[in-house]
Amino acid sequence: MHSFRAHQPTRVSLWLFFAFIVLLVLRPADVFAQAANAGTVSEVSGTAQLQRGAATIPVTRGMPVEVGDRIITGDNGHVMVLLTDQSTLELSDSSNMVITQHAGAVSQINLANGVVRSFVNRTVGAAAPNFEVHTPNAVAAARGTLFDTAYTSNVSRPTFGNAHNFTDISVYEGSVDVANAANPTAFTNVPAGYESTVAGTNNATSPGPLGMTGATAFSTPGGPGSTGNITPVSTVPPPSCPVCVGPSTGPSTTTPPASGK
Amino acid sequence: MHKLTVRLTCSLAGFVALIAFATAASAQSFFDDIYPGFFTLQEPPTLNLNFFGGGFISDKYGDLQEGLQFEQSVTPYIGAVGRITGYQLWEGEGFDNPLNPGTGHEARLNFVRFQGGADFTLYPGTHLFILGGRDAADSHASTVEGDFSSWLFLHSLHPFNFSFSAVHNYENGVTSSSIDLQAIVRSTRKWIFMAGGGGAIYGGGFISGVEGQGGPDLGVYYRPWNVGVSVQAGYGAAHQYGQLSIYKQLTIFE
Q: Residue A155: is its pLDDT beyond 70?
């Protein structure tokens, strides 16, 4: 005869069942959830690493990139990420960024150091994407454009006083609203062909022509931190100047004028 | 009365010391703001090459110039500059040799100008070149030259550039100057368009009084190639004239 007690749930079993129910109800969403896919690595060269949670792995071409991944490039590193909405992020050398949000038309990138070039894809007819690049001291918001964001710290620049960290926004297509992170409502609209700088706790400067205000950009010769300013006027006097004594000498004293000028 | 004088003197001395201290501190602060890292070598060092050429044509004479200017950075604010320029000068009939007056008419003169000196970055976008040199071939003059160029309101949609150049020729005693004011009309990803006006002034030596010419100018700069073109046309002592300048900038990070 079987014991009746063998079919009775024990107290321990009941507690375990209860605990399981509680865990199901109260589980943190991200414990079991799959991290959202942000895109894939379309190009990589030099040294580049991806941090996902506690793991650090080398970046390879075709590797999926998830929201929350941190990508770090070395001195010679260069990474291009194709996001799921066909926007692209191009990370320069010595840079460090995290894709903190990428869902639908909303994307947010946190740039901790270096330079990132963003090409924001805008589908014809669709709502304007909300694409933002955040640095420790600035926010750049774009609505379908091509622009660079550069963040440098522990440097000094002429005329910027005691500021030692700078965010430079260089706009190539479309326009970008730039603001200090501490004062996001006081933004400056930077049109294509111009650049702006957020220095320390200051508001964004008025836009100046690309390559002329000392801003760092993706294509700045010498890489981030260098200021390869262009000078779109010649530093050499025009051709008339060194010899512009010609007409003023008047008719020669030794040769009769032939045409009576 | 004596005590009051001493007290006043002490107060005045204290006030002067305070002002002097504040001024010194302010000056130091201003210097640090404008020239951070003034005494450090530029890192990375750069070699800037500027290839240039152009021509001038008028009723009375014409010339071509072509050359290379190279600048090696020393500090972020000082660079060592060298410039080699070749000139071909065509004179109108019956005019004396302007390079060496009194030697008669020469239809064509060719000479090379070798110059060396320094470039001082006085402020972001503001440069002063001081150059000395000597000519070779049809000219044997020693020259001294100062070129000043300043971009104003760089953090605006339409910054403008003021430039002034003066070169003194010790052989004919003439000082030739050019002056120009240009504003950026439009900046795009690849192009910069400029418009303004300028001209040349010359005097001294065998020139009686001051002469010159001037007119409007237009400029365009293509960023991907770092190439610029500037044209100017106007009227003056040489009657109608036209002028073209082309330049290509190249920066090498060492």
A: yes
CB atoms within 10 A of CB B244: 17
Q: Which residue has the tokens 């390869």?
A: A228
**Of the candidates B190, B251, B183, the residue with the CA atom closest to the CA atom of residue B219:** B183
Model's pTM, two decimal places? 0.80
Residues composing chain A: 261
B233 pLDDT above the threshold of 90 = yes
Q: Given CB atoms, is A253 within the 8 Å cutoff of chain B?
A: yes
Neighboring chain A residues of B125 at a CB cutoff of 8 Å: 212, 229
The DSSP element (H or E) to which A193 belongs, if any, is none
- The pairing of strands A130-135 and A106-119 is parallel
Of the candidates B172, B189, B211, the beta carbon closest to that of A173 is on: B189
pLDDT (tens digit per residue) in A35-47: 689 999 999 999 9
With CB atoms and an 8 Å threshold, state whether B102 touches A254. Answer: yes
Give Cβ neighbours of residue B246 (< 8 Å, ≥ 6 apart). Answer: B52, B53, B54, B227, B228, B229, B230
Chain A positions touching B187 (Cβ under 8 A) are 193-194, 209-210
Q: Is the pLDDT of residue B120 over 90?
A: yes
Does residue A75 sit at the B interface (CB-CB below 8 Å)?
no
- Report pLDDT digits (tens) over B52-69: 999 999 887 889 999 999
Report, in angstroms and rounded to the nearest whole number, the Rg of chain B calculated over CA atoms: 24
More confident residue, B59 or A202: A202
What pLDDT score was predicted for residue B55? 93
Q: Where are the alpha helices (DSSP H) in chain B?
A: 2-34
User: CA B177 to CA A233: how far, in whole Å?
Assistant: 17
Considering just the CA atoms, what is the radius of gyration of chain A in Å? 30
Q: First-to-last CA distance in chain B?
A: 71
Long-range contacts of B41-46 (CB under 8 A, 24+ apart): B41/B74, B41/B75, B42/B73, B42/B74, B42/B75, B42/B76, B44/A222, B44/A226, B44/B253, B44/B254, B45/B72, B45/B73, B45/B253, B45/B254, B46/A222, B46/A228, B46/B72, B46/B73, B46/B251, B46/B252, B46/B253, B46/B254
First-last CA distance in chain A = 140
- Helices then strands, each counted (H, E), chain B: 1, 12
Is B181 in contact with B195 (CB distance < 8 Å)?
no
Q: How far apart are CA B165 and CA A237, in angstroms?
A: 6
Residue A257 has pLDDT above 70, yes or no: no
CB burial of residue A95 (10 Å; 0-12, 13-18, 19+): buried
Q: pLDDT grade, residue A222 (50/70/90)?
A: very low
**Which pLDDT score, from 0 to 100, does residue A22 have?**
58
User: Which pLDDT belongs to residue A128?
Assistant: 77
- Please report, to the nearest 10 degrees, the dihedral formed by the alpha carbons of residues A159, B146, A231, B27 taken in order: 0
**Dihedral sign computed on CA atoms, order B17, B22, B27, B31:** positive
The pLDDT mean for chain B works out to 87
